[in-house]
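Subject: for your reference before the review

Hello V.,

The reviewers asked for a structural picture of the protein, and I figured it would be easier to keep everything in one thread rather than splitting it across files. Below is the amino acid sequence we used in the manuscript, unchanged from the supplementary table.
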Amino acid sequence: MAHDTDTAREFYKTVFGWTDSVDESGYIAFAQDGRVQAGGMAISPEMGEVPPNWSVYFLVEDMDTAVARVKELGGTVINGPFPAGTMGPMAVVSDPRVVSLILFRSMRAAWTRLRERR
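And here is what came back from the structure prediction:
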C-alpha cells in the first residue's frame, strides 16, 4: 500500500525486474515470467492515517472457519470478512501479540483446484 503508487510501481519494477498491470479497481499486480509475485494498491483518504506498508496474505480454504479459529485462539478480527472484488473474501486479523495479517480465500485458487481435480 502506498500514497504514491506510480513511484512505488517504478521502484519495485526496477528492483525486482517485475512487470505490472493495473485492474479497473486500481489494484496493481506485479509479475515475473508471467507469475504474479506481489500486489499493491493506493492508500485512500478513507483509510485514515495509514503508513505505506506491505501485508502478508494467508490462503485459507474456509474463511468462516479461519476467522472463528483466530478468535478462539485469542486473535482479533480487525476488518472483515469482506469481498475483495472478484478475487474472493478477505479478513484482516491479528494474532494475540497484535501482529496483523490477512486471510484470503481466493476464488481463482478454488477454480484452479477444481480444474486440477478433473
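For the response letter, the relevant points are probably these. Residues 5-16 form the longest helix (12 residues). The chain has a mean pLDDT of 86.

Happy to draft the paragraph if you're swamped.

O.
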